[in-house]
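Progress against Task 2.4 (sequence-to-structure conversion) is shown through the following example record, which the project officer requested during the mid-term review.
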Amino acid sequence: MKNIRDVLSALQWDKSNYCTRHQSNFVYLPPTYEVSQCPFCGTEALHQQIEVAEQKRCLDIERLERYRTLSRHSIIQDDTIRQANFDNFIAETEEEQLNKMLAVRVAERFIQGEMFNVWIQSPETGCGKSHLAMSILQQVNEASPQNRRTLFLDFGRTMELMRDSVGNRESMYTQNYFVTLASKADVLVLDDLGAETGDIYSDKRASEYTSNVLRSILNSRQHKPTIITTNLSGQRLLTGYREGGRFIPPMYDKKMMSRAMRKVEHILFKDTPDKRLLGF
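Structure tokens generated for the chain above:
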């Protein structure tokens, strides 16, 4: 193995040029040996190039991880929703066309960096709420120059996974996992809110555990956009109502729901039927 003296003696030194900073003559650079530079300045420049390249690689990895959040970490019951986008949302009625237009505008505003919440509501299931919610996420995920982190959580299934993790050390789906995951998402969808209680048309209220989880998620997202889809009416969410002589209480705590309705935009399906039942 060559020692440092052998290496230095093999260099072709340019004694006509001198680096006062490093107090060193220049060396001629291979392969032509026509250009010379200070070997110490050259080493520093090379280290800087390596550092810049490493920073770019780390940034690219971080951006890729953000981009993959939607596909890797979302909790989705209906696998067809994974392929949902604006192109394959079939808008046949005026209501569907309007709601698609509103959802496209929501995505554009999120991409521009606006902060507001969105409620997509309908009295019927199968109207396209989840489809539009996922379409917004897909659009933001593909178009955002900042590579925003987007996430879709079927709230009922998410709660099931949390409950199953209690006493199960092998499960990663703890309350802390989901609250942290939701808090990091730049745009979050909480899908089918209310379905976690079972029959949304009964007089059931959300359990204390469910309310605590929802409160933690909403509190962590006070400055980030959240999209909520639900079949619950405003009365069922906030105030409760009377039906046939009995009082149907609000599903959730009013204070918690009012927080979720700050800076809110509504997309409402009033007349669209359950498309999954068409043809039966």
